[in-house]
Design brief:
The structure is a homotetramer. Chain A is globular, with a radius of gyration of 21 Å. Chain A starts with 8 loop residues before the first helix and ends in an 11-residue tail after the last helix. Helix content of chain A is 44%, strand content 11%. Chain A has a single domain, classed as Divalent-metal-dependent TIM barrel enzymes (TIM Barrel), CATH 3.20.20.150. Chain A has 14 helices and ten strands. By secondary structure, chain A is of the alpha/beta class. In chain A, α8 packs across α9 and α9 packs antiparallel against α13. In chain A, the strands form two sheets. The first copy, chain A, has an eight-stranded parallel β-sheet with strand order 1-2-3-4-6-8-9-10. Chain A has a two-stranded antiparallel sheet with strand order 5-7. Chains B and D meet through α8, α9 and α11 of B and α8, α9 and α11 of D. Chains A, B, C, D: It comes from Brachybacterium ginsengisoli. Chains A, B, C, D: One of its GO terms (biological process) is rhamnose catabolic process. Chains A, B, C, D: This is L-rhamnose isomerase.
Amino acid sequence: MTTPTTLPTEVARDLAEFSIEVPSWGYGNSGTRFKVFGTPGTPRDPFEKIADAAQTHAFTGSAPRVSLHYPWDRVEDFSALRDFAGEQGVSIGMINSNTFQDDEYKFGSLTHRDASVRRRAIDHHLECLEVMRATGSHELKIWLADGTNYAGQDSIRARQDHLADSLAEIYAGVGEGERIVLEYKFFEPAFYHTDVPDWGTSLLHCLALGERAQVVLDTGHHAPGTNIEFIVAQLLRQNRLGAFDFNSRNYADDDLIVGAADPFQLFRILFEIVQQDAHRPASGVNFMLDQCHNLESKIQGQIRSVLNVQETLAKALLVDRAALADAQDRHDVLEANAILMDAFWTDVRPALAAFREEQGLPAEPFEAFRASGYEEKVAAERVGGNQMGWGA
Amino acid sequence: MTTPTTLPTEVARDLAEFSIEVPSWGYGNSGTRFKVFGTPGTPRDPFEKIADAAQTHAFTGSAPRVSLHYPWDRVEDFSALRDFAGEQGVSIGMINSNTFQDDEYKFGSLTHRDASVRRRAIDHHLECLEVMRATGSHELKIWLADGTNYAGQDSIRARQDHLADSLAEIYAGVGEGERIVLEYKFFEPAFYHTDVPDWGTSLLHCLALGERAQVVLDTGHHAPGTNIEFIVAQLLRQNRLGAFDFNSRNYADDDLIVGAADPFQLFRILFEIVQQDAHRPASGVNFMLDQCHNLESKIQGQIRSVLNVQETLAKALLVDRAALADAQDRHDVLEANAILMDAFWTDVRPALAAFREEQGLPAEPFEAFRASGYEEKVAAERVGGNQMGWGA
Amino acid sequence: MTTPTTLPTEVARDLAEFSIEVPSWGYGNSGTRFKVFGTPGTPRDPFEKIADAAQTHAFTGSAPRVSLHYPWDRVEDFSALRDFAGEQGVSIGMINSNTFQDDEYKFGSLTHRDASVRRRAIDHHLECLEVMRATGSHELKIWLADGTNYAGQDSIRARQDHLADSLAEIYAGVGEGERIVLEYKFFEPAFYHTDVPDWGTSLLHCLALGERAQVVLDTGHHAPGTNIEFIVAQLLRQNRLGAFDFNSRNYADDDLIVGAADPFQLFRILFEIVQQDAHRPASGVNFMLDQCHNLESKIQGQIRSVLNVQETLAKALLVDRAALADAQDRHDVLEANAILMDAFWTDVRPALAAFREEQGLPAEPFEAFRASGYEEKVAAERVGGNQMGWGA
Amino acid sequence: MTTPTTLPTEVARDLAEFSIEVPSWGYGNSGTRFKVFGTPGTPRDPFEKIADAAQTHAFTGSAPRVSLHYPWDRVEDFSALRDFAGEQGVSIGMINSNTFQDDEYKFGSLTHRDASVRRRAIDHHLECLEVMRATGSHELKIWLADGTNYAGQDSIRARQDHLADSLAEIYAGVGEGERIVLEYKFFEPAFYHTDVPDWGTSLLHCLALGERAQVVLDTGHHAPGTNIEFIVAQLLRQNRLGAFDFNSRNYADDDLIVGAADPFQLFRILFEIVQQDAHRPASGVNFMLDQCHNLESKIQGQIRSVLNVQETLAKALLVDRAALADAQDRHDVLEANAILMDAFWTDVRPALAAFREEQGLPAEPFEAFRASGYEEKVAAERVGGNQMGWGA
């Protein structure tokens, strides 16, 4: 198709309704086991993180919620944090639990062999539910670092049973209109076995719990070569895709900017989403970022990420689905593929710029933010204190 | 532990009861897309395949069943084939369907966009059920080559729905005391998406069908790095591990001799089996070989495979599980691992030789078969005709 | 950048000079070890393959050479084949040797333990040099299927030594103005070790031989996750990148259409090419396709492939390299990346259509070929005979 | 073969001469980006690390050298450290440079775009050469964290040129009887491209430098599926295998105990070593451990590692190489493989216990160390101070 100057009405409507949740920790320092580099202006407390996150929304108009990580984002008064977010133009999204940084969790948390450690981990999640309610959120996200490094270290089967029991206790605390989402991950920090390594395991636990439990798909948490869009289609078919953690990877869980490593994969994923209408708010799928900006500017990286998802979603929405179905009916492999690629190669940037201007947003959010002076301002203001990172 | 000269009573009992099913096609020619090499003496019909397969059982005492592949193993009178097997000292095991070699299946079979092709594929499976009954078998194994090579070629979601419907029709034909098992595979022959790519997908379809549907785990059908023993433990926990396809791999679905590429992986898998008593006949898990002997002698390769599984199972049975649980309770990672490794490194071959002699079997089945003259005999006899391979 | 309606002069010049070589075997049938599907109209002899290949050039203007595979493309009179190609508007490109389909090569060819088999394989290559000269070609491509399936099967080290000696004998036959290129491959058809598995091994042998020996990089012949553009940059730095085999892959050596699996990877690769001016004919790099069109129309697939490379090369040429260097100097990670992505997302199709029309070519070669009636014509004409595939 | 009670004379001699170098940092805390767990008794300074490392040698008799990491192991008086090591019965081995933890190295070190940063990194290596001499060492090991996270971030080619120049400056400082070894790594901490990602790149730089530069092979630094023993054979064939970093992995660079993830791979690697006599001190290959003991006891983990290498080397030495060559000559794939496996499955532990006792060592070093009370003693003594980890 020729480069469109405006978006079709329905595409514009869908994009206007579509939103992405950003992670508070994406605005703090991150790195690898080798080194965490700091940057001037990095937030020193959860309020500053939210202030930065609000910039992402201010410039893109598509990132109205901020996920918290508990206890990294612990504050004395969560209602004050909620109110502060509101003043900044955003709200609190998912609450992410953390059972991987206390010494007691060295050998597991909800799967731990010792009931006392499991108790502690369960109670942590119940506390997270309190934080959730105190911040106006309705969702608790559970990612477990649980696993083992050596064959024989613990019983794979027994840990599954412990996990089921622990989750059942947490689930009992989930009220109407609330939900938990369970994230799976192929490996890291455990290097022999991981207790929730794949979508099948996450889904089985959710099915056992009930309808308020759903699966989180993190695009970086799969084995090499995994067809992620297949999993998306499958989880949507089961009505159990609760949330997305967007990022990208070349090797392991690299946590790079979404769309940076393989933009065509992002397009294929979003096309599966679009085909099942899961990009619409009514689907209940929460689209989130979960990334590390180790080397690059964090706010800029977040804005770029939101734009990458938005642009790619626009492409996915532009696929001529009637023509595609027709080519598929005729088993015309190359034409079907060409119809998909036509949308992928269409330059949606001019039309998106126009769309943003209509909404009173900068046509070019990335450039506009860079020119805004915000980063220079906070770098000058945020002197002293401890920059926040992956720690409470 | 010191090298045992005899097996503990319970281990000997378990090994005596344990059996492995061999594939008829393992005795025919196989290869890669580049070349299929032939060998003198290769069977020219299903009867000769069964005769060869019976050698594996005669020398190991542990391979009493032969899987058939239909229509590769089509004969005019299946009861004659069943009787012939009986005379050779073996019986017919699983019937494997084939929906990947007719031109009509170019774009799929049970998942095909066109109802007429699905009909044909469903009917083929119903016919396989007939073959199953005619040969005294009770099990139908379904592996599908279905998938696509290019994004957009077909609808991933629609194909799942077609698959569910097609399987339901087949399942309706499965009687009491019978079962179907559904195999998953990461990729090949499809290179973009595969319709049953992972255990989760296979399990979801089995759950939707009912208790007579179970999952087949082929050890070569996973993404790089996948922890297969975890999947074993998980499927056993769901009571849905129907069968195993043993082989080994370094790269893709290499179909090498089981235990050849990573003997420690085989040990870990069998230890998960043993911990849930799934090696016992009562578990209903059918342990099968599914391999290609492209370069090596086929019967020798099959015997070696049976011995590899048997020896490794003996090691898994020798793990001091009480001591292991105790070390795990103390979170003594290295001792727990050492207990496992102690069994792995124990040389069970002398005790197994003694065990075999007690059963009236050759102490060294591999060497005994090589010395038996069978290969020379069939090479001399089987002159003319067409050697069988991966074709009907 | 905004969508260009015409290409900048230098870009147009570079594209006009750039050419892609197509493989004769890409026009024949191909498949997997499971099944090779036939298609009406598939060539029955090398002349028909060249006629089909010439269509790719006629519609794209960028595919003037056809690689041969010997003995698959053996004809009685190679000068007649050369002349026929000339009449069709194309010439003969690289000659590809074949040492993987004779029974003697079951355990290797140039690396074989037995001197007599090595002799045969060396002589085959010397014969290929004759074919090369008879067809007006100057290049011999060597890809070896050599390797082993089981640890211990043969000596890895001894095979390297044999390989070095065998190659030296072949190299002695390479005259001035001629060259050999040595292709590496991660695995398949060998599943334990491959004798030329990586670029390092290929390069070491080329360095030992001399300047008329160079490396072939096939984009599908690497381990999962390998950064191929790094290898491109490294081989160019050594002046040893002789040729490219384009295709794409999701899993193993899937041999899909170039750019189909990961178009951004193709862009990154071509950008490394462009940065070292290696896209220019003077570089001596031969850009070739090596693909399997198992399910799709073969000529259409080839045309699509040529267009994918051409479009992506245009994008790579449009990168604002001065701005990129400036952003790199400032360590502005996101701006540097954005400059690259700007070119990637630019829709070059309108400008390329205009460029083609100026050259007297169809603006849309893919659609034009589909509308030409050629496929229907050959399907009607080519009745009887044996369709060609991966066999002599 | 039957379980030997004593080692053959030549095997005993080879094992007596064989030694493994242990890393000082293996005795400090380590972990993942998620968490570093501490343990009572962890060393607070380089002297305590060496004291712990000396335990590994005291109990195994095979770990007489300790690698240092600079500046992690910086002390005021290196000759004092050297003397302390001597008193503990060990000596200082390789000096490992570190250019990944200063803020200046955020975008690279020896490859950095800015000459001033390269200067600093070069000077650091020259300083390491001083440390080397001050500690009685003769070897400098270079592993670079250099790379990029995003396409376009920097010029892959220019960085190679910078690397070559920087290494040349360092190499100029390497005297007779000294050497540098250059380690390659597939990825991490860089996630798009790594400047020395594979053995080919490392070897090219070493070849350009001269004979005092050799390659380090770390068993965890390869793409999934890589045949590492092939690389070993290839580097030995080039006389450029300088050193080994032993560890094991299931996924990425997991840095688990050597032999823990895939003991058969370790055996195959050591068998290639043995076949080229590279296990002998005269080969100049330095066999080292490079591991992280995140969860398990560090000294115990090191002892287990040394024992794993020693036991596996014994197996590799027991391979009946004459019989193997004979089976290979006959292309008897299964017999050749069986000869290898026979050695692998042979239980060498009783013979090794006897061998150790003859040398005045504990028959069971792992158990003996655990019973020695050393860990309890240092846990009680080392109170206060800062436990050492991956930091200066």
